[in-house]
Specification:
2 copies of one chain form a homodimer. Chain A has 10 helices and 9 strands. Chain A is α/β, with parallel strands linked by helices.
Chain lengths: 249, 249
């Protein structure tokens, strides 16, 4: 079996490392410099183009940014053999699942590994990133699902099925709003007349809560824009919770 | 030199362990069961009463809850020798510094080690809790300050001077509001129709940001009530930051 991974950043690179470590043949699609680093690290067996990857692999994983993945999906709808299982790893599922349905790609299954780090790029990838973590699949054709569940288990993750709608609502609450809060806590501290002179006095609690703020801003803008309505709802709920006096007597 | 510590919980217990480890004679004041545990752990050399501690020690540290510390301070104003240096370790400084001024205790210096854990009580205390951490002092009589700075350095912490007002504003931003946010994130997730069924899917970011939520609620109510006006101001700033669209495109 061979798996093509398009985009060898933190997630794609970690998946490449983990699958290669399990003896799976991994084909990598990315810029030449990134592919060279991935081959050197034995994360991929070979470098190829999207077209060749679609012909050669049994499973193709879109691991670029959300907007690039959507564009590549439209291209795959024209060139991919019907048997190819396609999945992605982006943090918002409704837009790409809808697009796959519109493109009539029954063997597409949306995916989202609930794992990550603040650093990005292939240099930040590790084979153990998914170990013990949930990996959400949005459901789809049974054969495609079975194959993806098998791959997910091979990298030590736990497949979980959720609808794209439930997924997007869930990550708005558990991931997207915490990301915004992390920025807002840092922003509020940097804007405070006294606190901004003494940020070095922050304790481990503040550091834990602002760690996410160093995540790549451009990628996050795409994610949050893609999940805008769920994020608005979750943010409104948080702001209501913040005004509950019962939290603070 | 001997130091009396009144209240052998997380902070008082850790200070007792650290000072004893440095060869300082530590007298402990707490309930009998806690004192027994502290003697067994060699965190204190002897158990005593507040009255005896005030006569015998050169430095007395109030490490009970904020309201108990205020009560003990009033008692010390009646019984303590003039030479006794008194400090405390609570997270809000204006109330106790004002009370010390009203009681005419010139050798009182407000203190706040910027260190902690979510667990509480003597069982959670460790000698290394303060190592490398800032320890805020609110200023006061030079001899008292000098003595406290020396003790703080001996437990591996870094003395920092701030006015009580600046301190309370700072901790509202860096500690008290993050505490409230941690509760609110957990509350909002538990209240969400979808998220509450899938809290086990939360990633490391959410877990980092809700770790503080397990801190002892009763102690926190006292802290937040004591710093109510600064907390209100900092919370309003955070809520404004959360509505900035620029954070999320």
């Amino acid at each position: 079996m061979s798996v093509a991974i398009v985009g060898l950043g933190l997630i794609g690179g970690s998946l490449a490392r983990a699958l290669s470590g399990q003896g799976v043949r991994v084909l990598g699609v990315d810029r030449p410099g990134v592919c060279r680093a991935a081959r050197k690290a034995r994360a991929i067996a070979a470098t190829t183009s999207l077209e060749a990857a679609a012909r050669e692999a049994q499973v193709l994983v879109l691991a670029a940014s959300p907007s690039v993945n959507l564009r590549l999906l439209r291209k795959l709808a024209r060139i991919a053999p019907a048997a190819l299982v396609i999945t992605d790893v982006t943090s918002v599922k409704v837009p790409i699942v809808r697009e796959a349905a519109r493109l009539e790609l029954p063997r597409f299954v949306g995916g989202h590994p609930m794992a990550g780090r603040e650093r990005s790029g292939f240099a930040a990838s590790t084979a153990g990133l998914f170990r013990g973590r949930p990996w959400i699949l949005t459901g789809g054709e049974p054969g495609a699902l079975r194959r993806l569940r098998g791959l997910i288990r091979r990298v030590g993750a736990r497949p979980v099925e959720l609808t794209a709608l439930d997924h997007d609502r869930l990550v708005a609450v558990l991931s997207h709003v915490p990301q915004i809060v992390s920025w807002a806590l840092l922003h509020a501290a940097a804007a405070d007349r006294v606190a901004r002179r003494h940020l070095d006095l922050a304790g481990p609690g503040f550091l834990d809560m602002t760690r996410l703020a160093s995540s790549p801003r451009a990628l996050w803008k795409e994610i949050l824009t893609g999940n805008r309505s769920e994020v608005r709802r979750a943010l409104a709920a948080l702001r209501r919770a913040l005004s509950h006096d019962r939290f603070w007597g």
